[in-house]
Amino acid sequence: MDYIATEGAPKAIGPYSQAVRANGMLYTSGQISLDPKSGEIVQGDFAAQANRVFDNLAAVLKEGGSDFSRVLKATVYLTDLANFQTLNSIYAERFGDHRPARTTVQVSALPKGSLVEIDLVAVC
C-alpha cells in the first residue's frame, strides 16, 4: 500500500492521506475547495469551488498514476442540492464521455465551509 501526496492539492487537514494506492486501485480522500497554496477556500461562487475541487482531484489522480478517464466511482457531497445542475455541467466537462458510477448527497456542512466535496475510486 502506498500513501499518495502531492503539492498540487491541499495537504491533509487531519490524520489521513490525500490518497491510498493498493492492488492497482487508487482511493482518494475527499477534496474540498481549498487552494493548495493558500490553504483557504477559493473565493467565488459554487462553480469556482467545484472547479477547484476537480483541480485538486486531478493533481491527486496524476500523482497516484491515474486520471479522470480511469475513475470507477465518484461520491459527491453538496451543502445545497440547488447546485446539482451546475455540478453536472462541470462534472461532464471534466469527465468528457467517461461516465463513472456516482452518488450525490446533500449534507448539512463540510469542512471549512466548502460547498462541495468529492472523493474518487480509480484504476491506476
Shape: globular
Distance between the termini: 13 Å
Q: Just give the CATH class.
A: Alpha Beta
Task: Summarize the main sheet.
Answer: 6 strands, mixed
How are the strands of the largest sheet arranged?
1-2-3-6-4-5
Number of strands: 6
Helix content range: 10-25%
- Structural class of the helix and strand makeup? alpha+beta
- Contiguous uncertain segments of 5+ residues: none
Average of the residue pLDDT scores:
97
Number of domains: 1
Query: What letter string, H or E per element, gives the SSE order?
Result: EEEHEHEE
Which CATH-level-2 architecture? 2-Layer Sandwich
CATH fold name, please?
60s Ribosomal Protein L30, Chain: A
Give a brief description:
The chain is of the alpha+beta class and 124 residues long.
What does this protein structure show overall?
This protein is an alpha+beta fold and 124 residues long. It has a single domain, classed as 60s Ribosomal Protein L30, Chain: A (2-Layer Sandwich). Helix content is 24%, strand content 27%. It has a six-stranded mixed beta sheet, with helices on one face. Helix 1 packs parallel to helix 2. It is globular and about 40 Å long. The two termini are 13 Å apart.
